[in-house]
Amino acid sequence: MSYYLVLVVAILTCLQFIPHAFLGYPAILEHVSKGEIQEPAAQGVQMIWIYSSIMMLLSGIWMFFIAKSIKMGEHLARLQGLFISIGLIAFGLSCSYIAQEVFNHLFFFTVEGILLLLSVTVFYKRKSQD
After folding, report:
1. pTM, to two decimals
2. Is the peptide bond before 26 cis (omega within 30 degrees of 0)?
3. Residues 50, 32 contacting (CB under 8 angstroms)
4. Which backbone phi and psi does 2 adopt, to 5 degrees?
5. CA 20 to 30 Å from 82, out of 72, 123, 125, 129?
6. pLDDT at position 129, please?
7. Cβ contacts of 29-38, under 8 Å, gap ≥ 24
8. d(CA 94, CA 103)
9. How far apart are the C-alpha atoms of 39 and 33, rounded to whole Å?
10. Binned average pLDDT, 10 residues per bin, the chain of 130 residues
11. Could you tell me the sign of the dihedral formed by the alpha carbons of 79, 53, 50, 37, in that order?
């Protein structure tokens, strides 16, 4: 079960990259052109958006790399999954705090983090020590 949860979160994270990068970035440029985001913040927002898009894709790809190792009960992969899950949960909850509503458009990251956390805790099977 933990293997499949990691794969689901990996797929969702990689898929989220597509609208984030290809729909979100043009929206950022539109806000900049309208003057809604002004210099010097405009360049920073653009750079952060590109960085977050790339890191979203890389996080999803990394979960594909660790999925099989988690399935096999390898401790280092479990730790990596744990850290990624904590990051996703912290990001999602921070966004809920900033938006002043729990179910904002970034709440899904909290759900992904919880699924990943479940995969490396509740559903995790430790490698047998032969």
Report:
1. 0.87
2. no
3. no
4. -65, -40
5. 129
6. 58
7. none
8. 12
9. 11
10. 96 96 95 93 95 97 97 95 97 96 92 96 79
11. negative
- Per the listing, tokens 């210099």 go with 39
Interatomic CA distance for residues 82 and 120, integer angstroms: 6
Task: Single out the residue of 123, 128, 109, 130 nearest to residue 67, CA to CA.
Answer: 123
CA-wise closest residue to 83 among 48, 126, 113, 58? 113
Which residue reads 């898929």 in tokens?
15
Query: In the prediction, which pLDDT does 126 show?
Result: 84
Count of C-beta atoms within a 10 Å radius of residue 103: 10
DSSP string, 17-82: HHHIIIIIHHHHHHHHHTTSS-TTHHHHHHHHHHHHHHHHHHHHHHHHHHHHHHHTT-HHHHHHHH
What's the CA gap between 120 and 118, in Å, rounded? 6
Is residue 2 within 8 Å of residue 120, measured between CB atoms?
A: yes
